[in-house]
Amino acid sequence: MKKILVLAVVAAICFTCCFAVTAFAEETSSAKVTFNDIAARKGDVITITVTLSDCSKIKSMAVVPLYDPSRMEYINGNWLIGGGVLTDWDQEEQNGVIMYSSETDVNGAIAEFVFKLKDNESWQDIDFSCKVVLKNGNAQLDVTVDTLAIYLICDHIWNETVHTNEPTCMQEGYTYNLCEICDREKKLTFIEKSGHAPSEWIVDVAPTIFKEGHRHKECLVCGEIMEERAIPVLETCKHILEDEVYIKESTCSDVGMTYKICQLCGERIKISEIASIAHTNGDWIVDKESTLFKSGERHKECNVCGQVTDTELIPKAIGIIDVVIISVSSGVVCGLIVFACFMIAFSKLKRREKHSDMK
What we know:
Helix content: 10-25%
Number of strands: 23
Distance between the termini: 194 Å
Oligomer: single chain
Strand content: 35-45%
């Protein structure tokens, strides 16, 4: 009994999965609408048949024609399928709706439209399409619709003037006449295509000493790229200079210059020199004060760059002690002179006295 229950559950699950997959497939299926080919003259009455293919099961469908009323006059429309529980074709609104009681396969010719081509329009092809909506319950199915080109037939009268459609590098040319009624072309003779005319190598990206460049050849006529190649990196840079001129200002200690920058390697290339400017000297700066016994030192430096521009010694200071020393020294000398004079006078006096006694 348990085995029977298990089998029943498994069967139910499988049935549910299959139903879900089927429903999903139906909802994501895509039908295709096509038309019969038509060629007609101005003023003709034409019938356009709408054909449906690759259609999954549906429960309802709607069809609405899409056309240019300035070139086509609507006459009527009809369903070409039956079996619907509700079938309606509204001639005034120019659309049709059909519904089924169950899921139904619908393929083949499903509807037709009757139009009259107007006489006063151009000879260009007339486009026709339609909107087709397919539903299965609430699910709307995808539909792709082709566009029909209605080709207008003309009893051509060909003008004797010969026109030329020039050849290109990759396409033949031709000579032709034009119809005096519809302006359509009648080709007469073909002219061989010219083939590409290659240019010289055109550099797209110049190589540098760090990175490969890129170049190509192109057709001088149509501009199509015919060949591309890499350009190897440069062993030494063949400078390609920018147009802009830059300036490095001169200083007291350094020469300035004008220069340009290489587009390939970024190096600065000197164009001309700018002479260095003169130092701007400041006041004396004392490095070492002078004393009574030793000279001092001082210097001047540039106010701009700080370079030392001049140096000199500061004389020793003259103070009271120097005056005293000088005064004492002078007194000693005078005293010695006076003492010497005294001794000389005294010596002479002694000699005289001695001489007097001897007499």
